[in-house]
Design brief:
mainly alpha, two-stranded antiparallel ribbon, 2 strands
Length: 307
């Protein structure tokens, strides 16, 4: 096994894991704290990518586009909470699923009307469009390192916000006992709207970071939302620590499985059988992990503390 290829794929797995964390952390905030099943969370990921793409062409600068697109995506999340999620809070999870599934169709159609059916490729500045040679045989794209750095910075900022700020204290209190928080005079609806907007910004940031690699396209959030649900189930619903560790685990397993599983299978079967079976098994790996966690530890690997 080539060591350089192993390191490159490990970095790709970390990159995928951090992108999954950005989506899953917002989903954890909304699902774990608000107890609201938001299938349309992936559509906010898609809108973040499209808004960033449009602003990149408007400003001629990808980084400025990201900075402006973040609050815009948060504003869309606030509107979704105010007009779609809030009337459904008192309803059961099936109504949440039906309502947000309808929202997916609406947002996909709006994206089609605004940006057209074709995807939008996002150009990068020259200093981000190159490669960094770590060794003679190990070359890493500059933008992928930026994604890893941005994901780690977002994770650290979210950890600080949730654990060391007054807003984070209110979020944790609202997750534990929203009735008591309301009785203490806290505007719980405004708090929930801020949480929803923060989750939208995190999902939008993931879409903005992946758009230069895959392009912004309609429906791009529909696949990642499934993997994000896998992450929060494996990590523990409502646990930021669990979401972070599970996202990295899922990202590495998925990337390494697709890259090296056929070589492992060749140790026990013929090359033809290994090349046939490995892609199918690698596509199922993360769901096998989820099934094992549900069977052995239904609350997740790192469930939130409860009193």
């Amino acid at each position: 096994m080539d060591l350089s290829l192993l390191i490159i794929q490990a970095l790709n797995g970390v990159q995928l894991g951090l992108l999954l964390f950005l989506v899953a952390s917002g989903l954890t905030l909304v699902f774990g704290i608000l107890d609201f099943v938001n299938l349309a969370h992936g559509s906010l990921y898609m809108l973040g990518a499209f808004i960033c793409a449009s602003l990149t062409f408007l400003f001629g600068n990808f980084l400025w586009a990201v900075l402006v697109a973040l609050p815009l995506t948060g504003g869309i999340g606030y509107l979704v909470e105010r007009f779609v999620a809030r009337p459904l809070y008192a309803r059961n999870h099936l109504d949440h699923v039906l309502g947000t599934f309808g929202l997916i169709l609406v947002l996909d159609t709006l994206a089609h009307l605004i940006w057209g059916p074709a995807g939008i490729a996002v150009p990068l500045p020259h200093w981000l469009d190159g490669q960094i040679a770590l060794t003679e045989t190990l070359v890493i794209p500059s933008f992928r390192l930026l994604i890893i750095a941005a994901g780690l910075a977002a994770a650290a900022g979210l950890f600080w916000l949730v654990n060391y700020t007054r807003l984070g204290m209110l979020i944790r209190a609202g997750a534990s006992n929203r009735t008591m928080v309301s009785a203490l005079g806290i505007d719980i609806q405004t708090l929930f709207a801020l949480v929803f907007a923060l989750g939208a910004m995190l999902a939008g940031l993931a879409g903005m970071l992946i758009a230069p690699i895959t392009e912004a396209s309609i429906g791009m959030g529909n696949s990642i939302i499934i993997t994000a649900f896998v992450v929060i189930i494996v990590g523990g619903i409502g646990s930021m620590k669990g979401a972070f560790i599970a996202a990295l685990l899922i990202g590495l397993i998925d990337t390494m499985g697709r890259s090296f599983l056929d070589d492992i299978f060749k140790l026990a079967m013929s090359p033809e059988a290994a090349e046939t079976s490995a892609p199918a098994v690698s596509a199922m790996l993360i769901y096998i992990i989820m099934a094992l966690v549900l069977a052995l530890r239904p609350q997740g690997l790192f469930p939130p503390r409860t009193r």
